[in-house]
Amino acid sequence: MTGTLPKEPTAVKPFDPHKQSHQLRRLKPTRKPAGVFSIAVAFCDSALLALAFFLAASPFVLQPGINISLPQSPFTGGARFGAMVLSITRGGWYYFNDERLDLDRLRLALKEAVVVQPGAPLIIEADERVPHGTVVKAWNAALEAGVREVSIATRTSAPATEVATP
72-156: what CATH class? Predict the structure, then answer.
């Protein structure tokens, strides 16, 4: 025998029939956690649903204000955003910047408003039963205050439909 050592017998591992069941019992999740993305999607979905509800319900909320029945006109013009609004009730009261004014105080309020908003147009919302002279007084007060553009608000009338006669 020439210097080789005999090999030691290696230990034989016993047969384990439940090896695979031990691996399955570790309860590893098959999916990864949802993470921030799915939470953000759920939040955005809820926010858009709430926004849609408030937009749908907002026309049914009564707005405080004065009751004016505007005259009808088949023609309409647009008003620029940021226009000043003067309302005249059938009682002859002027409402400007949420204040009830008489004609003298209206002149002062219009002059102050022209200083704050120099190029803003004025829209006069007059009830259809207000005398023409009352509207003209308000118009003249606006022109005296330096308002360059004055418009009268109307509501659109229903388009006339022709009924076919047999």
Answer: alpha beta
